[in-house]
Amino acid sequence: MDMVKKVNALNARKKLGQLLEEVYYKGDQFVIERAGRPMAAVVPVWQLEERATRKERLLGTVEKVWQQTKHLKPGIVEREVKQAIKAVRERAGRRKA
């Protein structure tokens, strides 16, 4: 499993080459901090691309659902969502028992 490592900005600057090799070859992730505050992250490019793909897929799904339900009143949608959540929680509760 990939572990996020913390590095301060000065060390990141001094060891940028090593940091990049660890990200590229080992899949490591780094959070660069300045004065103890997280300022930036360095992650493998494939993870960034995968995140963008998932985001686009999610936004496409949201748009599709919106198009299919835009004629419904918000109150109806909210009621159906609450009913669905309740049903799922009841099923999950029965499985635990």
TrEMBL record:
InterPro entries given in the database record: YefM-like_sf
Family: Belongs to the phD/YefM antitoxin family.
Protein source organism: Candidatus Methylomirabilis limnetica
Protein name (database record): Uncharacterized protein
